[in-house]
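Hi there,

I know you've been waiting on this one. I reran it after we fixed the sequence typo, so this is the corrected version. Both the input and the resulting structure follow.
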Amino acid sequence: MHSSTKIRLIDLADAAPIAAHRVRDVEAFRPWEPVQPADFFTPEGQAERIDRLLDGYQAGTVWPGVVLADDQVIGQVTIGGVLPQPHLRRGSVGYWIAGVAQNQGHAGRAVGLALEVMTDELNLHRAEASTNLENLPSQRVLRRNGFSPYGIAHSSILLDGNWRDALLWERILGG
């Protein structure tokens, strides 16, 4: 059976399921993400993080979403660094899917839905993203959603004790 993928604005009630996924997947995400403080893996720490994200949403700088499969939280999709000024109008897409829900197409569908939010709700002109050079699954997700690579940010993120390069991606949304 193929479960449906949806996205919606994050809510404080999402803190516990997000924390549970992050605890279970800590080793799987280690190569791709910066080291997090211990409270990141607790419902309380996630609730504080969600509060900050919702503050950013109110300020117009971020659209923080959760990814749902059959109405269960299975990940997050965030449109960050939103610059709504007429001459900029861009945002950066980031996402993760819990290990239990990977390889089922959810990331690709969630990014597609985030692009609709960027176009229809946020009125953005340009979508950006970045991936670790070795993160081929994430690169496939972006390519399937019409992103093209346009450069490399050298030594841009500290991952697992080493400075790593990132592949930069873009997609023009129109408008």
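Quick highlight: The radius of gyration is 16 Å.

Best,
R. S.
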